[in-house]
Every structure is written in C-alpha cells, then in structure tokens.
C-alpha cells in the first residue's frame, strides 16, 4: 500500500510540475484558446502562439477552413500572426464574421501561406507545429 501511495504521489507531482499547458521544446504551438461572440453576430477567436523554437518568425500566415456544426466548410479565413518572437507566447485575436461561435465545430489549418524565419527564406512549418484547442471546436491540420 505504501509503495502504491508513493507511486501515486510521484505521478501527481509529475503532472503538477509539467502541467497541461507546458510548451513542447522545439515546437511552435498554436492554441485556439477562447471564443467570444462579437457585437455583429460573428465570433472572435483568441489564439495563443507559443514559440519554443530557436527562431523568431517574421512571417507567419495561415489559411483556415471554418467548418459549421454539420462539418461543412462555411468559409476560408486567412490570418497573419507575425511576428512570433523566440521563446515567447503571443496572443492574437481574429474575427470570424457572420457565424456564431456555437456554430463552429472545427477549424482546419489547411495551408501555411507564409512561414518565414527572421532573415531567412520561407520554410515548411508543418513539422514544427503543435495544434490544440481549449474551445469546443477542434483545431486540426
């Protein structure tokens, strides 16, 4: 019994010290953190960008497909999140017009239109991305 309690305490300590929001080293986490209805009947999306790479990005543009509650693409939305400084978490707000937050079932990152490190050429960012959502809508690629 004592061994079981020690193992349980160690597991709880590990979860507590790592925490659910710990950013993965070498990754750029894009988190759909919160939805908020706006005054025009659309949806405001709060994104957190946690840049745990060793690179500042001066270009970071994503093309997103917004899916409704039936899983049908409602619209495409392009967002520019640059700049994304190294070892920083950046908050960006984006408006999704003419659709209520409760009517968004999923957001698909289907294309990176720009992923440009500072003083470098465009690169493929998909391998370094980590996507997650704290809203009822999934964020997927």
What's this, in brief?
With 141 residues, the protein is mainly beta.
Name its key features:
141 residues, mainly beta, Immunoglobulin-like, 4-stranded mixed beta sheet, 8 strands, 12% helix, 50% strand
Structural notes for this entry:
Helices cover 12% and strands 50% of the residues. The protein has 141 residues and is mainly β. The chain has one domain: Immunoglobulin-like, CATH 2.60.40. The chain has a 4-stranded mixed sheet, with no helix packed on it. It has a 4-stranded mixed sheet with strand order 4-3-6-8, with no helix packed on it. β3 and β4 form a beta hairpin. The chain is elongated and about 40 Å long. The N terminus is likely disordered.
CATH uppermost class: Mainly Beta
Give, in spatial order, the strands making up the sheet with the most strands. 5-2-1-7
What is the average of the pLDDT values?
86
What is the CATH topology classification name?
Answer: Immunoglobulin-like
Gross morphology is elongated
Largest sheet: 4 strands, mixed
- Counted up, domains total 1
Please tell me how large the radius of gyration is.
18 Å
Number of strands: 8
- Report the CATH architecture: Sandwich
Number of helices: 1
**Structural class category:** mainly beta
The first-to-last residue Cα distance is: 45 Å
Low-confidence stretches: 1-21
